[in-house]
Specification:
Strand order of the largest sheet: 3-4-2-5-1-6-7-8
Structural class: alpha/beta
Helix content: 40-55%
CATH architecture of the largest domain: 3-Layer(aba) Sandwich
Number of domains: 2
CATH topology of the largest domain: Rossmann fold
Number of strands: 8
Largest sheet: 8 strands, mixed
Radius of gyration: 19 Å
Number of helices: 13
Length: 302
């Protein structure tokens, strides 16, 4: 099984798809076989960023059961060792696959013959997005150094942490019922921090409680700060996400890259062509290529 890299964002407009597409290209340029998967089920446009015509069957065909195997949807991108599984956002209902289809896609993603499988997920914190993001404990979260992005990223991490914690308890279990009541209290602004609640519940729920707490602590999200302009205060603002997540969720995000705002990116989207192919020496390209080298150097089978 290759290394699965889910890429998500708490809100739209932060450049998540551009990051995913160009990261895939950078890894393939290092000799790695990469499959990019467009899992932005409600707004698939990864093919556009890559400059690939939208004339191939995509994930919608699997969701609507006109195709039965994920690997039949893999198409070449025109770049060596870089492949794409397109999305199908124009097909109605694609954004809301049923649970069995979602589980089948997850299973099949793990069998793709690639060194890296990069999942371009939809923006926001829907359970469909979060469940795909939780396929790896160290998924990527793209933010920009602005307060709304940081707050939405925290909301995403909180949803992911709660979803992962809840999985440890079967339906009908009292501990699960307590967790759901805690979530309801959070919406009303009355609940204690998730970390404190998890520790308390773990002490009451025996082995399952200990497993749930361990699952929560296994999350090691990796954060990419995109569209940075080098203004004073930007690093501190982006760093607030880590402080809040650690204090309230017991999660300590790792900041793995800062990507500058770069006019070459806008030009590449208008063309359309990946910015790494069009302008390999652009500041954005150089920063993302550095991240790819880190990943390629530490890649292994998961």
């Amino acid at each position: 099984m290759g290394t699965v890299i889910p890429v998500a964002s708490g809100k739209g407009g932060v450049g998540k798809t551009v990051v995913a597409a160009n990261l895939g290209l950078a890894l393939s340029a290092l000799g790695k076989t990469v499959v990019l998967v467009d899992l932005d089920l409600g707004g698939a446009n990864l093919h556009t960023v890559l400059g690939v015509r939208n004339r191939h069957a995509g994930l919608g065909s699997l969701i609507w059961r006109t195709e039965t195997k994920l690997d039949t949807l893999v198409v070449a991108t025109g770049y060596p060792r870089l492949y794409l599984i397109p999305g199908d956002s124009l097909l109605p209902g694609t954004a809301n696959p049923d649970y069995s289809i979602k589980r089948r896609i997850m299973r099949d993603l793990g069998t793709l013959p690639a060194d890296f499988v990069i999942l371009d997920l939809g923006a926001g914190s829907s359970y469909t997005v979060v469940d795909f993001w939780l396929m790896a404990p160290d998924g990527f979260l793209v933010v920009v150094p602005e307060i709304p992005s940081i707050l939405n990223a925290y909301s995403f991490l909180k949803t992911a942490a709660f979803r992962l914690f809840l999985r440890s308890f079967p339906r009908g279990d009292e501990a699960r019922a307590q967790a759901l009541r805690h979530a309801a209290g959070s919406r009303e602004g009355k609940a204690q921090r998730l970390l404190d609640f998890a520790v308390d519940l773990a002490g009451q729920a025996g082995e399952r409680g200990a497993q749930a707490l361990e699952a929560l602590r296994s999350l090691k999200p990796r954060v990419i700060v995109n569209l940075a302009e080098g203004r004073a205060g930007e690093p501190e603002l982006a760093g607030r996400l880590g402080g809040i997540a650690k204090a309230h969720l017991g999660i300590d995000p790792e900041y793995v890259a800062t990507l500058p705002r770069d006019p070459a990116v806008s030009s590449s989207i208008a063309r359309p062509e990946p910015v790494l192919a069009m302008s390999p020496q652009a500041p954005f390209s150089l920063a993302l290529a550095g991240l790819a080298r880190q990943l390629a150097g530490g890649s292994g089978q998961k």
